[in-house]
Amino acid sequence: MSEKSYILYGSEYSPFSVKVRSYFRYKNIPHEWRPRTHENFAEFRALAKLPLIPLVAGPKNEVLQDSTPIMELMETRFPENSIRPDDTELSFLSFLLEDYGDEWVNKPMFHYRWWNDVDQIAVADGLAQSALPNGDANAREQLAVQIRARMVPRLRFVGSHEGTKEIIESSLDTLLMLLELHLKRRPYIFGGRPSFADFGIWGQLYSCMLQPTTKSLIIKKFPEIVSWIERMLDPKNMGEWEEWEHLAPTLEPLIKAEIGNLYLPWSVANSKAVFEEASEFTVELPKGAFNQQAVKYSARSHHALKDKLRKVGGRAKLEETLLKNNCLSALVAEAW
């Protein structure tokens, strides 16, 4: 690694890893993509503060983890081709959509990954191949069995169970339907260049393309999304940001249905549970009760989003948009 380049440790099956890789490619940041394997796990562990990917090892022994803070820091170091729209309203909405991708769209991705046998087997085999690229077939088969046994019970971490299955699956259906309509007129969510929103949502949907059930669903019904997923593997600047009045007719329905009616009510309830030190919580959503264990990281993410809104100056127009789409109260409410 040169003095000005970075090493990105990750996995093709990690939506947050490929999210950062796509961003580094777009920004032309000198880097080496280094899949985390059993062979290099010791060097990864020596660097990692937490055993999580993505991990970016930078010049002068710098170590960065957590996809959004990595990208926000890199935006200050590599300001050209910014992924933050110039308009303050669009900039915040981009952060809102990215947060939704990271914290909510991750639910259907993970749910479908480990719910059905066909997906469990395919993904476990892929992860084993990634971890042991030079291993023999027997070793990879044994590892795949271990991965599957370890990961299926973790469905509870995203709140996936029989009581929430319909909510999670219908949410992905709604996202795909509304995003398909929105992308018919533009290459990226906010116009001619990718934003934080694209990277956040794309990481999850790209991961869906590595799973038989969701891959089949997307390919059969959503050609615009397929093109966007392929485009985002190595995104390019294809034009300017669009004005909100051009984006709103197809983007507002997505924000209202998915973020205003589902994600933010869930996020508020989760944050309240974390604040009260409750182990789990239940929130009433349009299609029924959603119960899961409290998630501390998501509560911190919700707090960070509220802090971003507080820092937006002259936000009357933005607050009107958020109010119209059932988002405002969840982002301005005081702590409990």
Helix content: 55-70%
Count of strand segments: 6
The dominant shape is globular
* SSE string, helices as H and strands as E: EHEHEEHHHHHHHHHEEHHH
Q: How many separate helices?
A: 14
Q: How many domain units?
A: 2
Radius of gyration: 20 Å
Q: What amount of the residues lies in strands?
A: 5-15%
Stretches with pLDDT under 50, minimum 5 residues: none
Strand arrangement across the biggest beta sheet: 2-1-3-4
Largest β sheet strand count, sense and barrel closure: 4 strands, mixed
Give an overview in words.
The protein is globular. The chain folds into two domains: 72 residues, Glutaredoxin (3-Layer(aba) Sandwich); 201 residues, no CATH class. The mean pLDDT is 96. With 336 residues, it is of the alpha+beta class. It is built from 14 helices and six strands. The strands form two sheets. It has a four-stranded mixed β-sheet, with helices on one face. Helix 1 runs parallel beside helix 3 and helix 11 packs across helix 12.
What keyword list fits this structure?
two-stranded antiparallel sheet; 6 strands; 60% helix; globular
Topology summary:
Blueprint: E1 6-10, H1 15-27, E2 31-35, H2 41-47, E3 55-58, E4 62-65, H3 67-77, H4 88-115, H5 117-131, H6 137-151, H7 165-183, H8 196-208, H9 212-221, H10 223-232, H11 244-275, E5 280-285, E6 288-293, H12 296-310, H13 316-324, H14 328-332
Parallel strand pairs: 1-2
Antiparallel strand pairs: 1-3, 3-4, 5-6
Helix pairs in contact: 1-3, 1-8, 4-5, 4-7, 4-8, 4-11, 4-12, 5-6, 7-10, 7-11, 11-12
